[in-house]
Records
---
Amino acid sequence: MFSGFFLSSNLLPTAFHILNYFSPLSWAVQGVNEGWPVFFPALGISLLWLAMGSLVLKQQWHWARKNGKIGSYV
């Protein structure tokens, strides 16, 4: 919604500009508009999100193993 795809980024408050810096969707929109110069920042942000997701998955997996909830949805 606030990536600059639906709304122009010039119309957004400053807080959204800061949050958009960490959004892979925002970097994808910039990549479509600007091309290859934004590839490495977009790759870095994407890798950051993958690393954070991996850490959360690892933490949750260890919790589930400890509590015997690996095969359970509850």
Note: The mean pLDDT is 85.
---
Amino acid sequence: MYMKIAFAVSLTACLVGCATTESMSRVSSYRQTVIHVPMPDDTYRLYEHKSDDSLLVAPSMSKIVSIGMAQGATLGLADTMTPEQKLEAAAQQHLTNTGRGQCKITRGYMLQKPLFEFWFECPAPLPASKT
């Protein structure tokens, strides 16, 4: 129950005010279990899609708060968003951590500040040899 509340609160905080119906629908299609991926610069929050080969990645809550504070203090002029490359690296690290290191990120885009969605493909398994 706590995880569902935390998921809803964190995503709502990220999306309030400027979320589109499409992005809200896409976000709700992800599993609600957060996966923490520690990286040298931050511990990213990651969600796996229920049926697609895609991942939703966001910076830590403390990073999101600092992004919001910096943008608020500068009236939106400061670009303090986490670079897409760092979010993609966290997604690739998660694939490696879960035994899918051979899978590759094929594309990614900002779903809604600061959430990025990354799609990945895995090589087809080799057919079993007949002996």
Note: Strands lie at 35-38, 43-48, 54-58, 104-112, 115-121.
---
Amino acid sequence: MSEDWFKPEDIEILAEAANTWRNELAHEKREYHPDIKAVKSIRLVEHLNYAIVLRELGYEDAEIQKLLDQALIR
């Protein structure tokens, strides 16, 4: 993934944001209001899903990064 999409130090923060949103949805508290971290966390999951599928199809990491750079709008 391009460095400017997700900084390594942000991954834990985004994971926590995604988990908070998941808990809200799972327990139907209806109190949570997604913020920019929640939206970015969903984008991270989207990138990971594409990377996993492309790797399973046999693409190399450099090829995956090129494809993601071309296919996903930031």
Note: Residues 36-56 form the longest helix (21 residues).
